[in-house]
Amino acid sequence: MSQRSSGPSEASKYPPTEFSLKYAKVLAPDGKLVGPDEVFGENGRFDKDVEEKTKLAFKVTMKKLEKYNTVSECNKEHLKTAKVDQIVECFPNTLLKLLPNTIQKTKWTKKSKDVVDWDTWWEMHEKILRPLRTQAESIGKWWDFTGKPNPGDEEITKSLQRLVTGVLTHPMTIGKVISAHTPKRKKDKPKSIHLVGTDTPEATMIYAGFYTEMLACNPLNPIKLTMVSPSAGNRQLAKDCSPSNPMLINDRCKLTAWDGLYHDFWERYILAKKVERPDVVMAIHPRLEGEFWGPTVDLLLDENIKVAFTAFNEEHFKQALERLDYVFAKYVFKGLNPWVSGHVKQTPHDPNMIWASNQYLIVFQGRTVDMKTLTLIEEPTEENLAEAEDEFERLLNEAS
Q1: Residue 2 phi/psi, 5° resolution?
Q2: How many whole angstroms separate alpha carbon 133 and alpha carbon 128?
Q3: Residue 259 to residue 160: CA distance in whole angstroms
Q4: How far is CA 153 from CA 3, 132, 334, in A?
Q5: Which of 62, 170, 252, 257 could form a disulfide with 238 if both were Cys (CB 3.0 to 4.6 A apart)?
Q6: Helix or strand run (H / E) with residue 65
Q7: How far, in whole angstroms, is CA 215 from its chain's centroid?
Q8: 161 and 122 in contact (C-beta within 8 Å)?
């Protein structure tokens, strides 16, 4: 499951979140962030006492962040952007109300295969950049309250862009995995993906409508999306769209969710042929050392299912590879993910643990070793593949 806080109380203790929740009515009185000149002063909405309390609250939050950000040789480069992002996170993110609607209404102007990283994605989304720049100007007007050097509107805009990638990294990574690692199908023939170990971030992707970017990555094929997890974040979806009652959340996307572990889901629904075998199974930040992942990974390897896992930093990536090497996983791809979140974070309990959602991607299918005979499974040579292609062509010609 994803690298995430253990619960709402812990998340709300994050200093920027605490500040944003408490002072939203001051900084964004009508649900839209405005400058201090509009809320304080002669014609402002609030008196001098509220202004002083707001200044003090900013200072206290900055002090908390100084303790939060322990600089080390490993993390000092990453903390340069993280510190700006943390201050930007203090401001009510009123853009989140606009973002889903804008995303859903924006059609890609490039072919999916040409959208290869965030730079090419942003080139198509000027409609999002415009309100980001406006938001950055408003945030810049408040910056003196923080007591920190103002990085300028351009840097604040870049910070907001990083926060947007943090929201959209899941649908873009999932969409590109479907595009690159599932069989090619004729137009309008659906592709199937099972998301395993899903929690609140994946549920948010559905509720907020950000899954439309996943569909944009696959313009020719509808998507059958199945989410399987025993987590609280998945539970409501499982009630709303169970395997016996899937939901058409878009004319190109059918959603199913199940509350439980994936190897149990496989036995109950796939072996019973109530749900078809997936084209790919995917998990965001799985902790493979956990007791529940072993049976699921073994099952997927034995069934020769294409699998994609993401990792949130290099250490997590190496730990995942170590586990997969142990069970002789046959890799299709392993390396950096171009759709990593630009929102880099530091873990408070370990200053050297820097992470970002979906930083690495691992794709594998089947094993390199036959577990019955413990012998290596030979890969077909180029000559074998050429012969197979010739034979396939011959059969096609005979059939026609």
Answers
A1: -70, 155
A2: 9
A3: 34
A4: 30, 10, 37
A5: 257
A6: helix 48-68
A7: 15
A8: yes
Give dist(CA 184, CA 261) in Å, integer. 29
pTM (predicted TM-score): 0.89
Spacing of C-alpha 120 from chain mean position = 18
Give tens-digit pLDDT for 233-272. 999 999 999 999 999 999 999 999 999 999 999 999 999 9
DSSP character string of 109-177: SS-GGG--SHHHHHHT-HHHHHHHHHHHHHHHHHGGGGTS----HHHHHHHHHHHHHHHHHHHHHHHHH
Q: 123 near 110, Cβ under 8 Å?
A: yes
Residue 100's nearest CA partner among 163, 167, 33 is 167
Whole-angstrom Cα distance, residue 196 to residue 366?
A: 18
Residue 393: in which H helix or E strand, if any?
Answer: helix 382-399
